[in-house]
Amino acid sequence: MKKKIIGFLVILLYAHPVWSQKTDYIIVKDIVIEGNKKTKDYIILRELDFAKADTLKIATLQERFAKNKKWFINTDLFSEIQFNISEWDFETSLATIKIKVKEAWYIYPLPLIELADRNFNVWWDDHHHTFDRINLGLAYYQTNFSGRQDKFSVIGQTGFTQKAEIEYGIPYFNRKKTIGVNAKVSFIRKRSIGYRIEKYKELFRFSDDEFSIRRFRVNLDWTYRPNLRLTHTLLTGYHKNQVADFVVDSLNYHFFGKGQTQELYPSINYRLRYDLRDINLYAMSGSLLEFNVGYEGAFQGLGPDKWSTSLYYGQYIKFSRRWSTELIGKVNKTLHYGNPSFYHNSSLGGGDYIRGYEYYVLNGQDLAYAKSSLRYMFLNKSIPISRFYGSKDLPIRLFLAINNDVGVIWERFFPEQNPLSGKWLWGKGLGLDLVFYESRAIQIEYSMNHFGEKGLFLHLKLFN
C-alpha cells in the first residue's frame, strides 16, 4: 500500500504544471531511524548509499530503497526494514527519509552439531552417516554485542574433533567508521587424522592412546572499508601444529614436510574485496571480485614457507523476474613452496568444488575453475508464521538450475596422490534451490562428472 501511495504522489506531481520541474528529485533533509533498540544509529547510516543533503531522483527512489534493503539483510542485524518519505516540502524539495527496522535475534546460545567431514555428501555416503563422526558442543553467539555490529562467540566442542574457541570482532572503531578488527584464539585436537589420499579418498587413522593432531592458532585481522563495497583486509596469525610420532613414522613422512612432527610459524595475508552483489549468500545481480596474496612462514624451518595468491570473480545477471544466471571463476597459484607438505596443499573437494566430484579429494598447489548456473524461479511466496514468530512471514523462492562446471588442479610434489593432476574436470546437472529469508539457500543437485558417475548432492548456504 505504501508503494502505491508513493507512486500516486509521483504521478500527481508530474501532472501539475507548476511543480513538474521541482519534484523530479528530493533533497534529503534528515534521516530518521525507528525501532532500533540496541543498534547504534551510525551503524545503520554507514550501510546506506545516501546521506543527509544528498539529492535523490524520484523515478529511481523505490529501486534504490529496495537495493539498500537487501544490503541491510546482509548485515544479519534486522528481520524487517521499511523505507518511507515524510515532511516533504514541494517548494524546496526537502524531505525526511524514515527507516523503520525490526531487530533480529542477536543472542544464540545453541547446541553445536558439526560434521567432521569435508561436506554432507562425504559423511552420508563414504562414512555411512555414522554418528561417531559428528561433533557435539555448545556455542554462544552474539552478533550485535554492544550495538555496534560487533560479534562475540565462545565455542566448546567434543566428539570427533575437540575444540575451544573465543572470537570478537568490531567493524568500526575509528571516528571515520572505516577501520575494524577481529581477534580469534582457538585450540583443536583430534584422535583421528586424515593422512593420505588414495583413489581420491582421504585415509584416516584413529588412535585410542593419544591425540593424533593438535592445533593452536591466534589470529588478528584488520579491515579498512573506505566505502560500502570495497574492503581491504590484513590477516595475521600465529600457528602451532603438532602430530603424534606415529603419523610421520608410519603413515605419511611428508605430512608436515621433511619428517617434521611440529610446525611453528606466522602467517600474513592481504585480501581485497569489491562486492557489488545484492545479496551475499544467493545473489541475483551484481558482482564480486576478491584478490588474495599471502605468506605462511616458518620458525627455525618449522613451517610451510609458502607464498600463494588467488583471484576470484563472480558475476550475477538477472534477465527478468524469473530468469537469472550465476557465473564464477577462480584461479589459485602457489608462487613459492619451500617445504611441500600434505597438510598445506590446496584442494578441490571442500569449499572449492566441481559439481559431480563432491566425493573426490583432489589435492594440489595450483587450481582453476569456471562454474555457471542458469536459474529459473518457478515459485515465489510467503508462508505466514506469525503464530510462531511475531508478525514476520517466511518468504521462500524455488529455483530450477542448470549447472555446468569445468576445472583443473595441478599436483607438483606428490603426483601419486592425485592421478587427475593437470586433467580437465567437467561436471554438469540439474539443481533445485530453496531460498528463504531472501538469502539462505538449500541446494539439492543431481550431477554427473566426466567419468559418467551420477549422484544426488546437498549444499547449504546458511551463514555469512
How large is the share of residues in beta strands?
Answer: over 45%
What's the Cα radius of gyration?
A: 25 Å
Q: Which ranges are low-confidence, i.e. pLDDT below 50, for 5 or more consecutive residues?
A: 1-5, 8-21
Average pLDDT score: 86
Q: What structural class do the secondary elements suggest?
A: mainly beta
> What is the 3D form?
globular
Number of DSSP-assigned strands: 24
Sheet with the most strands: spatial strand order: 5-6-7-8-9-12-13-14-15-16-17-20-21-22-23-24
Write the element-wise H/E pattern from the N-terminal end onward: HEHEHEEEHEEEEEEEEHEEEEEEEEEEE
The helicity comes to 10-25%
Give the termini separation. 32 Å
Which topology of the domain at 2-103 does CATH recognise?
A: Ubiquitin-like (UB roll)
For CATH, the homologous superfamily of the domain at 2-103 is named as membrane protein fhac
The number of distinct helices, counting runs of at least 4 residues, comes to: 5
Oligomer: single chain
CATH architecture of the domain at 2-103: Roll
Largest sheet: 16 strands, antiparallel
For this structure, what is the CATH class of the domain at 2-103? Answer: Alpha Beta
How would you characterize this protein structure?
The chain has helices at residues 2-15, 41-46, 61-74, 120-126, 245-251, and strands spanning 25-34, 55-57, 78-89, 94-103, 107-115, 134-142, 151-158, 161-170, 179-190, 192-198, 201-206, 213-224, 230-243, 262-275, 286-296, 306-318, 323-337, 346-348, 362-364, 366-384, 393-410, 425-436, 440-448, 454-461. With 464 residues, the chain is mainly beta. The model is unreliable at 1-5 and 8-21 (pLDDT under 50). The chain has a domain at 2-103: membrane protein fhac (Ubiquitin-like (UB roll), Roll), CATH 3.10.20.310. Strand 7 (151-158) and strand 8 (161-170) form a beta hairpin. The chain has 5 helices and 24 strands. The strands form 4 sheets. Strands 5-6-7-8-9-12-13-14-15-16-17-20-21-22-23-24 form a 16-stranded antiparallel sheet. The protein has a 4-stranded mixed sheet with strand order 2-1-4-3. A two-stranded antiparallel ribbon has the order 10-11.
